[in-house]
């Protein structure tokens, strides 16, 4: 697959790469290019699930993808799920990549081999580094990656939504992504009940630091405290509590649509 070149329809699609988007023109092209230029022989499709972009994201998406979907239900969880529901019926694996995340050229081959050689593995995520590298950003990057490694070793892996690979049958069996606060934690908790879920720090994707820039370091630490809280409480309960306490749009505060 490459720009202006779609999946070879004579081959059975093995992987569906799903990118949710909402006004992501600043980042989307680099993300889609990294997916379209993968060094792999595994047949895959690239899907953008758009949430109502008005900034030119759709034009960019059409240059690179096999399918551009219009998801009417607002939210990154529904956008990801809409992509999964509309993926090729032959696809055995889903990879969810956020619109501001760049994956290394071997990512799809690595994913395919991991699922092929580890039949008990249902889903995984990988480490990341921020594209910007100030001292504050480096600190937050280190803390975040160590946090995910700790969760993987001590309890069960949290799968950050910007970079998650999952077997198709396990995805639908656990109910997929839903429209709740901390949708990636909610998804991680449900799929963990089905089997093995892992976080692999040796693989690194590149993620934008825009949420950190908006939240600051304290906001970032608050976000990760919410991740831990998310393991103990139903995410819809957290949503209701935030409204009851009058917290101004907690989703926006921690960078979740």
TrEMBL record:
Its main location: membrane. The keyword Glycosyltransferase applies. The keyword Glycosyltransferase applies. One of its GO terms (molecular function) is glycosyltransferase activity. InterPro entries: Glyco_trans_2-like, Nucleotide-diphossugar_trans. GO terms for cellular component: plasma membrane. Keywords: Cell membrane, Glycosyltransferase, Membrane, Transferase. It is found in: Cell membrane. Residues 16-171 form the Glycosyltransferase 2-like domain. This is Putative glycosyltransferase.
